[in-house]
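FORM 12-B: Structure-to-Sequence Request
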């Protein structure tokens, strides 16, 4: 099973790219969606302990958590120490499930693929990119987003140029959705039939070589 890591900085078009992979029948693990689920479940009490007042009725209040993160330069690291292990566990379960089902390719959509060292757990990396001014324009259109929040998020992410340098494939999303889809299709076709080793070598799956 070939494991493809899909990444890119905020606002670069990861979700659109992921939908293109899924449209071709390729299973996609969405790390952001997993975080949303955790925020409404097992991670909520842990986050409340670390950031009192950040939850309500067993769910994380995103605005309150975002405010707490802006107040303390070490807060993001504390949050990641809570959330990342839970996301990794869910990711391993996803990979195991689809390997057993006989999938020949899966996609892990991981915003911080390189920042967290998760590139060592994929066979191929795909980075989506767009010019900085396009990225900023896209992100600032999101509800509740401000320049301050955006800059804080960027500070926690590897520069786009560094991600592109590390990638096996780079997809420019500063064009039409149809053109981006065609580029994803070309990548998929180039990967068809390729054997992967990332899952087999993953610690804890019982198939280490």
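FORM 12-B RESPONSE
SEQUENCE OUT:
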């Amino acid at each position: 099973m070939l494991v493809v890591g899909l990444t890119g900085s905020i606002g670069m078009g990861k979700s659109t790219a992921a939908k293109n992979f899924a449209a071709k029948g390729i299973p996609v693990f969405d790390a952001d969606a997993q975080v949303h689920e955790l925020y409404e479940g097992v991670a909520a009490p842990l986050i409340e302990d670390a950031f009192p007042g950040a939850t309500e009725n067993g769910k994380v209040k995103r605005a309150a958590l975002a405010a707490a993160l802006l107040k303390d330069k070490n807060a993001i690291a504390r949050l990641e120490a809570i959330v990342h292990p839970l996301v990794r566990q869910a990711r391993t379960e996803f990979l195991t499930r689809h390997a057993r089902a006989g999938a020949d390719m899966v996609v892990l959509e991981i915003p911080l693929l390189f920042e967290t060292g998760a590139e060592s757990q994929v066979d191929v990396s795909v980075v989506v990119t767009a010019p900085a001014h396009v990225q900023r324009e896209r992100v600032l259109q999101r509800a509740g987003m401000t320049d301050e929040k955006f800059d804080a998020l960027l500070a926690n992410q590897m520069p786009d140029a560094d991600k592109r340098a590390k990638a096996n494939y780079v997809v420019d999303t500063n064009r039409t959705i149809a053109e981006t889809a065609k580029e994803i299709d070309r990548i998929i076709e180039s990967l068809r039939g390729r054997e992967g080793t990332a899952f087999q070598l993953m610690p804890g799956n019982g198939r280490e070589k």
